[in-house]
Structure formats: structure tokens, C-alpha cells
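Support case: user asked for a sample of complex input and structure output to validate their parser. Sending the pair below.
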Amino acid sequence: MNRRGDASLAPYLMVAPATVLLLALILAPLALVVATAFTDWHLGGGAAAFVGFDTFVTLLDEPDFRTAVWNTARYVVFVVPATSVAGLVAALLIAECRRGQALYRMLFFLPSVATLAAMSVAWQMLLSPSVGALPQILRLVGLTPGNWLQDPDRALSALGLIGIWSEAGFAMLFFLAGLKTVPAELHEAAALDGVGTLLDRLWHVTLPHLAPITAFVLVFSSIHALRVFDTVAIMTRGGPEKSTLVALYFIYQEAFSLFRTNLAAAATVLFIAAVLLLSLLQLYLTRARGGR
Amino acid sequence: MRRFLLPFILLLTAVASGRAALAVEITVLYPQPYLYQAPIEEIVKAFAEKRPDIQVKLLAPTKAYEETASAVLRGAITGSMPDVAFNGTNLMHLFVDRKLAVALDGFVSKEADWDKQGYVPGMISTGKVNGQLYGLPFALSTPILYMNVDLLRKAGGNPDAPPQTWPELLALAHKITDPAGNTHGAYMLWTTTGNYLWQELLFTHDGEMLSADGKKVGFDTPAGLKTFEILRDLVTEGGMPNLTDDQGTQAFIAGQIGFYLGSSARVNSLMGKVGKRFELRTAPFPSPRPDSKIVSGGGTMMIFAKDPAKQAAAWDFIKFAAGPIGQTIMVRHIGYMPSNQIAIDTPELLGDYYKNNPNMRTAISQLARTRPWLGFPGENSLKAIQVIYDNMEAVVAGKATPEVALQRSATQVQALLPK
């Protein structure tokens, strides 16, 4: 065997393991999900029959699906801006910190590292109307706490706040990195030009510089918010009165408690399309930045 | 040395091959280990003593009935179904519709003295789907009434003559309800999986889930309306708070609820948790007549083995678990209703146990009236159950009248039935 032949084969051999894994673990299952969405197949059922877009028609007719899409949209619109603002504020405060920067960074980032499922159990206890810490504190200061997770008007907001709590640290990390790239000269020049107050400099110097990273944070928090599941599955199971039925929980329920596999597959296809769209947007924003 | 070794090895191989040729291994999957693990392990041990030729291998249990179902259905694709699975009775349709479950009528007809083995016919009928037997009951329950006797007495009720009908119960519940004192007249566990309590309300009023030919919704009747009316009355007259299952149960244990309506499966755990806080007594579920039908369901044992030898071994195992010894072990551990009359009547099995535990007797006093906890047919079976659940929730929350809830349930379920 000659040396040149080896060299031309080597790259393929090197990517082979990754390719095989990608095919077996992601692309092939994805193809199966897409295929299932166009059949009448149910888990454990016999041969599947092709039914075209029938499953999608049933899905779009399903009131629960519409509720899930609507709730997910409300959740994203509530959580994403708040996560970004909270992350930005935390980053700005920490960047100005002279002492204990590392400590604060860790404290704010902790919720993002913790397993959300375990945290959901903890939150459930904290919010429990009779024995929870939060209602008891509220009662101490003379307020009347509600049974938030059992209140159809409040449950989604409660989950949203927990979502913000768990995601803001992540956003903060990106903003901190972004702040490091703001050149000190710009601030000095702005000060010389008479842009005096801290707030003015924030508005005219820091924020414009952070715009690209902000776009990135918005997109990834949207993707994360779309994927909300743990808190719902553990704390509310989509209730009360479907007020916290979100996209992923709907898919989970259809697939694993109602066993309507094809419907779950169709919903998954739409869900992946939505995430893909957001990812493309992210790619576009990154490219646009690079081209500037 | 050598002289000893050779015969020893020969003996070992003989034993090993003999075992392999004789012992049939069957795999068994069950849910809810917090309830079922102890009794099932003891039953397997007792069975092994009687039948050394069958090796029962317990698979890692799943959390809930739905997960066992899901594991069996996945196994159908990968060719790895358990030989026996403990399924929720209302989920049996899933396996029958997909032609995965083995019908048991053939095994029954081969039993020489089936009538004399003590299996209670009403209870065995909970294992039937489309007229054929697919499951033997392991642990069944029926809804019963739990009473806080202290609250009942205060409201002028007589615990020795508990309310038997809904008007009687609601009137007492109304008197018990005292928002200022944080006491509520009644709480029904309407959230229980598979519309269990809704079916109880329907069946006690002689209602049917499906039409006689099984093709149409059958609850679009006065009996069907009654189910939602009682739910509404429980809220408006009986003071039923809108709580989750756990919250309602905690409130009853804390002594804040007069009547608690739910599965008899909770007797053991409630008696333990209530302790001496108040006097807890059980009574039959309220119904228009003392002989009204009542729903019964729980865990049922189904066979999925394909190999005839394994099927036969599986049948012997589930028969044992549903038999006098199996049922005695089950009742002593978790207090569900036994489905075997011999177990109930024999003093050293369960006879004495029931004599000493009057609260446990309520459920078996309803034994003769049972009819199965059903699922809807077809692939949308569980979705139909969810639809009814949603409408019950709307009535309890005061967002729908019983009439609207019934009408919506009927139309939506009809659309989900097989065409």
C-alpha cells in the first residue's frame, strides 16, 4: 500500500465514527419520525399505512394542540425578554464589581447548572400553599398567597418566572463575555466628549457594542424557552385547565400517555421546523455580523 | 484428586443440563413498586416452592400503569415483550386492539375444576374485553365512602346509619361545610386516572359508556347527565374545594373534610395517616339503590408470551397469583380487594383478617355488584378519557354547566370512536 493512498483514505476514516453516530443517533431517528408523521401508525401496532397529510389535518384540528402552541408562544414572549434583561443587568453589575466578581458570577450561574427537574421539585415545595416557604413568608408580612400552580390564570406565569430564574445566568455569561470586548478607549473617548453619566455611556457605548451578542442571546433563549418541559411535567402536568399545556408536553402526552404515536410525530416535525427556523435566524444574524 | 474431579464435573453438567431442559423461564413486568414489589416478590417465592419447574424472572418495575403499557408496546416492536405484565384494567383495550395479548379462555376451558377454585365471577369479568378473557385480576378496588365520624356527628349525622344516597350525603355535607372553620363537606377524587369515579357515577345510575352495538356513545342519557350534576352539586352544595388529588387527600387527613369519596385501595394508607386524629369509618359508595352496579378495576395480569410452553407456565403463575395464596399475600400487604372467595372465607387466609378490620370489609361487601372499569375502544381510547376528564374539570371549576359538559363530552368522544 502506498503512502498517498493512505493519506486520501485517512480523513474519511477519521470522520467515520462521528458520521456513523450522527446517522444512527440523529438522522435516522429523525427520518423515522418524519415518516411516522405521514402514517396511521400507533406504538405497538402492526404495519403502518401511508395517509398523506391526514395526521397533520387531525393535529391542526386538535384543540389541545392549538392550546399548546398558544401557551408556548405566551411562555416564550414572557420569558425571553425578561431572561435577556435580567442577564444583562446581572452582567453589568458584576462587571462593575471590584471584589467578589467570581463569587457573584457563580451564584447567578448556579441555577443554570442545576438539574431543572430536581429544581422543579424544590420549587413545588417552596410554592405549596399550606406548607411552602414562600406562602408562609407572604403571610408573615400580611399578604394572602394564592395556590399559584393550581390557578389557571397564574400557573403559566409561575412557571415562566422559574424559567427566567434558571436561564438568566446563562444569558449573563454571554453578556459578560460581550462586555469584555468593549474597548476601554471607547469609554474614555466618550467621557472626553462629554457623555458624562454612567447611564449615558451605557446607552451610547456599551449597548450598541452588545447588539450582536444580544441578538444571539435572544435567539438561544427563545430556543430554550420553546423547549420548556421539566417544570411542566413535574409541577403542573399541563394543568390546571390546560393553562400550562406547552408544545413538548403535548408531544410527550400524545406519544407516551395517549399512545397516538403518529400525531406526536407530526407535532414533533412542526416543532423541529420551528427550532430550525430560529437556528437559521441565528446563523443569519451571526453571518450578518461577520460581514459588517 | 483427579478421580474426584471427573465425577464431580459430570454431576455438575448433568444438573445444569437437566435444569435447562426442565425449567421454563418467564419474565414478569409490573408497575407501582411502592405498592406491588413486596407482595409480588413474596408470591414469586411461594410459587417457586410449589413449581420449581418454572422460573419467574421479575423485570425492573415501572413507575405507573401507563409506563408498563408503553414498555409492552415498545417490546412488540423489538420482539422483547414480557411474558406476563400487570396492566391497568382500563388499558386492556390497547393490547387487545393491537392483537398482542393472549386470550385466556382456552386455558380456562382446560381447567377441570375452574368453578371450584374460588375465582369470583364478577371480579374475573373485569378481565374481559369484547367478551373474551384477557386478564386475571390481581389487585382490584372499588370506590367507597370514607367518613370523618367526628365531623359527621357534629352535623347531626349517625355513623351507624351512613348516608346511602346522594341527597342524603349532600344534605349532611352541606351542614358540615363551614368556610370560616376551614371545613368542607365532601371531596371526591374525580381526578383518578381513567375516569374511574365518573364511571362509578355512571354505572350506579344504570348508565352505559357505549351503545348496545358498541359503536356509539352510550352515556348521552339522563344517567350521563347525572354524573356531571353530582359533580356540580358536590361543589355547590357539598362544599367540595377545587384541589388536586394530593391536596384533597391531605385536607381529609388533616380533618378538614367530612366525606372523602375514592378508591378502596386507599384504606390502608388513610387509616395509617389519620391515626387518632379523628375516627375514620368506611361505608358503601352512595347510590340510588343498594344493589346498583359499581365499578371495579385495578391491576390485571395479562399474557404476552408467544411460545406455548411459556404461555402455559405464565398461565400457571397468574392463576397462582389470583388464587387463594396469591390473593392472601396481596391483601395482607396492600389491602386491595381479593378476587378469590376461598381466600376470603378461609379463616387462616383472610377470614380472620376481615373479622378484625371492619373498615376493610366495606369493599368486599360490594363485591357482588361489581362491573369492570372500562376503556373506550380504538386507537383514541385514552384521548376519549382525557376529553371526559377535561369536562369534569370544567364543571368542578364552575366553567361549564352539567348540560354543556355532557353535550361536549358526547360529541367529542363520538368523534374519537372507531368509524
